[in-house]
Amino acid sequence: MNDMTPTREQRSAALEGMGCKRKRVEDIRFTQGKGNYVDDVKLPGMLHGDFVRSPHAHARVKSIDDSEALKVPGVLAVITAETLKTVNLAWMPTLAGDVQMVLADGKVLFQNQEVAFVVATDRYAADDGINKVRVEYEPLPPLIDPFKSMDADAPVLREDLAGKTSGAHGPRKHHNHIFEWTVGDKDLTNAAFNKAEVTIKEMISYHRTHPSPLETCQCVCSFDKIKGELTIWGTFQAPHVIRTVVSLIAKLPEQKIHVISPDIGGGFGNKVGAYPGYICAAVASIVTGKPVKWVEDRIENLTATSFARDYHMTTEIAATKDGKVTGLRVHVLADHGAFDACADPSKWPAGFFNIVTGSYDFRTAHLAVDGVYTNKAPGGVAYRCSFRVTEAAYCIERSMDILAQKLGMDPAELRLKNFIKPEQFPYHSALGWEYDSGNYATAMRKAMETVKYAELRKEQAAMREAFKRGETREIMGVGVSFFTEIVGAGPSKNCDILGIAMFDSCEIRMHPTGAGIARMGTKSQGQGHETTWAQIIATEIGIPADNIMVEEGNTDTAPYGLGTYGSRSTPVAGAAIAMAARKIKAKAQMIAAYKLEVHEDDLEFDIDGFRVKGLPEKFMSMKDICWAAYNSVPPGMEPGLEAVSYYDPPNMTYPFGAYICVMTIDVDTGVYKVKRFYALDDCGTRINPMIIEGQVHGGLTEAFAIAMGQEIRYDPEGNVVTGSFMDFFMPTAVETPHWETDFTVTPSPHHPIGAKGVGESPNVGGVPAFSNAVNDAFSFLGSTHIQMPHDYWRNWTAAKNLGVFAA
After folding, report:
1. How far is CA 21 from CA 17, 679, 694, in A?
2. Which residue of the set 16, 391, 540, 760 is catalytic?
3. Which of the following is catalytic: 22, 384, 388, 611?
4. Number of other residues whose CB lies within 10 A of the CB of residue 537
């Protein structure tokens, strides 16, 4: 009989808790085509909305004639800015403290801007209707180049801001200027440069790109006129924030707004903010009394919803001759498009770009960021990164390679020389952050040893000699990237959105039979929350993960939370989950003590229950405790076993990693081949290694896309020339390289389970690794810096400019 008793290892394995490669429970429905997406929502009498959009980047709207559109069978209404003015909804606030037109009010400011909203009985009628709306435009000079935005003769874009000399983030110094944000000690930094033995200066541009999630932005709005209640199904990464924003905009009581975010098909920051489609569908439903669905197509998504990046970073590093960095100076020109609609915490107009000191011990630094308006779509979202962290990492990692090239040092050795040392943590950076933990040199050396870095450099040297002798037309680059990311927004002392602190939440309710349900304020877009959240609870309270149901995305049932983006789920919500579970465990311990007739201090937790210290046979499982919670609790204790936790983190978390990319480029064609890509990540405690590996693969694929071709590009007239997947690089399995993943573990000292977050890291570290590989390949031919993206054409052009392509 005793042989049948499970061992401790078997009991632990049965939980499938933290550290287990538990299979994703979400995939059961996804792989069978049973996902529930917004476009699957079909309600009786549902209408459909579609937009008339501007063909111009900058034009005055002279008139809108909807008479022919209203004759189209099935078309019921055409909503314009004039319609919205009757309910004070022509403009809406952005998350960045600006305001944005819902529909064009007097003029349009970017191509494909929303001009009118046609409501019809089906999508086909709506499409026919938008083609019948006649809009008369008076074209105006477009402003596309951000470097010309503050010229004296630059056209005035935002006429609604006329006479306003200050904005949400301080003084404005030009009619197209949004803000200037500075941090660091300017005088000390200037002094460091004045004394520097070596300096470098380079303009490093991170081009405009787009998150392009699998499912585009969509919603269904249904207004119940009897109850005065509005229900919205939508592709929302932050459902509670959307509910609050709608309440503020539409002046509806928040308790009468119900927001449901089902399976949303990817987000990557694109689905954080509010779009005109949400407002127009809601207004149309309120007016008609019927549900209204809006679903954008791919061209609309790429050209009109939130972009990412578009940062132009003039970067300077001061250093000694032997490679010790002594100062950093960065100026950023940030192209925000027509409206400042960045999804950053309110106090951070440039996000967390001041992580730009990276993993290095800069004793002094100064950063200045100027945000400007242009005739492009608004946005500036955190596309698979924490707020502007990818831009910061690219900036410093390219700059360190440029410095290494000037000094004649190996780029990996330069990094090792300047890393923040383990004994310096917690480390206070020159630009204001407190890094919680890190062991950078160990990670870097492990990466170098694994890829046989010294041998790669010898192979590269031999290939360069062969190129000089005319024996090959390929050049080889070894791209090194070491990043520190700042995630887990964030502490209420410095992080809020619209005045709401960026905490997150969890509610756990255990049932009598030992199963339970957990609800969170986050919203998965593919990260595997239903799998990993249950694993945290399983480890914390000893109930198998399969017995915990995870629910997100419904504001009527989930506790208020700030949602999922910027790799904040595990650092913030993961902590809330652990803390709620510990409240459950604390009550369970009191119940077990009562049932076992001992003092609770005489108990110790053992995997899946409590046992009496020194008397291992006296044991009560968590399953039995759940039953007892509903029928025999200690006198004076409330029945039941449930808990809620709202977690306000004391600090951010700081995951880091070492990436190495090996690439060859044919100088006659520009064609590149990624020969090897090694990615080592340290995300602290690893909840599910399999999901981490999947997240790293996905993030690296997006990094590959961005670095090697993915771009939202405009012509001088403001036309988007990469507005479909015919032109916007979306890698498939054919193009995507093979990824090698690895890890070290440095737990966060302040996080309840030591976790740091990983979903954004591969994009943060991957982009500079690819770009550094390309630049390293061309460096021996005399090149210092080649701007991204590095597609075949640009690689060929670089070779042509260096005079090495075949005639």
Report:
1. 9, 19, 11
2. 760
3. 384
4. 29
Q: What is the mean pLDDT of residues 458-471?
A: 97
Mean pLDDT of the chain: 97
Residues of the chain with pLDDT > 70, as a percent, come to 99
What is the spatial distance between Cα 530 and Cα 549, in angstroms, rounded to a whole number?
7
Residue 193 token pair: 């440069």
Global pTM value:
0.97
CA distance linking residue 114 with residue 755, whole number of Å? 42
In this predicted structure, what is the pLDDT of residue 807?
59
Kindly name the residue from 237, 405, 460, 535 that is annotated as catalytic. 237
Residue 770 burial (CB < 10 Å; 0-12/13-18/19+)? buried
Q: Show the DSSP H helices in 260-376 as ranges.
A: 276-288, 298-304
Report the distance separating Cα 280 and Cα 130, nearest Å: 15
Q: Are 161 and 173 spatial neighbours (Cβ–Cβ below 8 Å)? A: no
**Would you give the distance in Å from CA 159 to the centre of its chain?**
32
Neighbours of 732 (CB within 10 A): 7
% of the chain beyond a pLDDT of 90: 97
Q: Which of 20, 217, 221, 385 is catalytic?
A: 385
Contacts of 186 (CB under 8 A, 6+ apart): 366
Is-catalytic flag, 683?
no
Residue 355 dihedral angles phi and psi, to the nearest 5°? -85, 10
Read off the pLDDT of residues 374-408 as tens digits, 9 standing for 90 and up: 999 999 999 999 999 999 999 999 999 999 999 99
Residue 202 tokens, joined: 């380079």
Distance CA(82)–CA(115), nearest Å, equals 11
CB burial of 775-800 (b: ≥16 within 10 Å; e: otherwise) equals bbbbbbbebebbbbbbbeebbbebbe
Task: Note if 760 is an active site residue.
Answer: yes
Position 660 scores a pLDDT of 98
Q: How far apart are the first and last CA of the chain?
A: 84
Spatial separation of the C-alpha atoms in residues 415 and 94, rounded to whole Å: 39
460 a catalytic residue: no
Q: What angle do CA 541, 547, 552 make, to 5 degrees?
A: 90
- Could you tell me if 268 and 559 are in contact, meaning their C-beta atoms sit under 8 angstroms apart? no
* Residue 263 tokens, joined: 């399976």
Radius of gyration from C-alpha coordinates of the chain? 28
List 519's β-bridge partners, or say none.
507, 551
Residues 6+ apart with CB under 8 A from 640: 629, 630
Cβ–Cβ < 8 Å for 103, 114: yes
DSSP code string of 488-545: S---TTT-EETTEE--EEEEEEE-TTS-EEEEES---SSS-HHHHHHHHHHHHH---G
Residue pair 675/735 in contact (Cβ under 8 Å)? The answer is no
Identify the pLDDT of residue 566: 87
Q: Respond yes or no: is residue 385 known to be catalytic.
A: yes
Q: What gap in Å lies between CA 533 and CA 118, rounded to an integer?
A: 42
CB 203 within 8 A of CB 312: yes
Could you tell me if 731 and 751 are in contact, meaning their C-beta atoms sit under 8 angstroms apart?
no
Confidence class for position 328, pLDDT limits 50, 70, 90? very high
Interatomic CA distance for residues 498 and 486, integer angstroms: 21
- Would you state the structure tokens that stand for residue 187, as one six-digit string? 């005088």
Tell me: the pLDDT tens digits for 498-532?
899 999 999 999 999 999 999 999 999 999 999 99
pLDDT of 2 > 60? The answer is no
